[in-house]
Amino acid sequence: MDHIWSAITREVDVVTIAALADPEFLAEANAEYVANRTGINTNPGGTIISFEKFPKGTISDATRKALDLENGGDWPDVEYFSQDAYASTNDDYLLSAPDSKDTFDHPVVNPNWLTDPRDMEVLIAAFKRLRQLFKPKVVQPALIGGEVYPGEDVATDAQIEANIRRSADTVFHPACTCKMGMSSDRMAVLDSKARVFGTKGLRVVDADSFPKLIPGHPQGTVYGLAEKIAYEILNGN
Ligand SMILES: Cc1cc2nc3c(=O)[nH]c(=O)nc-3n(C[C@H](O)[C@H](O)[C@H](O)COP(=O)(O)OP(=O)(O)OC[C@H]3O[C@@H](n4cnc5c(N)ncnc54)[C@H](O)[C@@H]3O)c2cc1C
């Protein structure tokens, strides 16, 4: 499992981290930070992160039911995050190798993103919600012009879907390749103490061990899992 993202880009009339590309601004920011520990250098980027469980009617009842059944009902459907960056098609990430036997060519890795129609339904809904974020009057003074990417002419569900298929990229959260689960589960590799079924003295303790990917950033959960399994090992389990 992995998380993928797709973005809307707007030009804004406020100072963002992109301004640090200007050497003069950068020098001033560095001086301010060194002198007072204040200013733009205190900002790690991606200042706003939020999670949402969609309001009723945003996605179909069937998908709502399927997601709640899968995730227990209290997980968010999507995460929204802001970046001081120009996001577009992400084409440069997608190195598609030619048909070649040259070992120096990059391999083609197909993670099968967006093969479940419910994932696409959720992403289309999230895309429309994201556009709503730019609608309130209070936001208008911060915006310059219209939508830079993908642009307002991407309007119908089919156009939004095509854009998402073209631009979606990983959030770098691949996980769950050695799933923890019941021995009766054919996809499970580990028991609840992270021991590999059918072996002795072998555990997998990392993001691969997750039975499913949490609806957020996984690093903290990797630490939590490691603490838990270390405790089990120390207690002779
Ligand atoms: C660019 C990027 C940004 C991210 N941002 C965030 C974020 O903001 N918040 C968040 O929560 N998560 C973030 N993540 C995800 C997070 O980093 C991973 O989910 C997490 O590190 C996974 O932990 P892990 O222990 O499973 O694997 P890893 O942290 O990848 O650890 C695997 C370790 O195994 C070592 N290794 C590999 N092969 C061998 C070998 N043969 N012998 C010995 N050692 C080996 C590697 O060197 C590595 O140290 C980000 C990931 C990336 C790539």
Automatic annotation (TrEMBL):
Q: Name one Pfam family in it.
A: GMC_oxred_C
Q: Which residues form a coiled coil?
A: none
SUPFAM superfamilies, from UniProt?
FAD-linked reductases, C-terminal domain, FAD/NAD(P)-binding domain
* Glucose-methanol-choline oxidoreductase C-terminal domain span: 99-226
Q: Name one GO molecular function term.
A: flavin adenine dinucleotide binding
The processes (GO biological process) annotated in the record are: secondary metabolite biosynthetic process
Q: Which family does it belong to?
A: Belongs to the GMC oxidoreductase family.
UniProt name for this protein: Glucose-methanol-choline oxidoreductase C-terminal domain-containing protein
- In its UniProt entry, the species of origin is given as Extremus antarcticus
Supply the source organism's classification: Eukaryota, Fungi, Dikarya, Ascomycota, Pezizomycotina
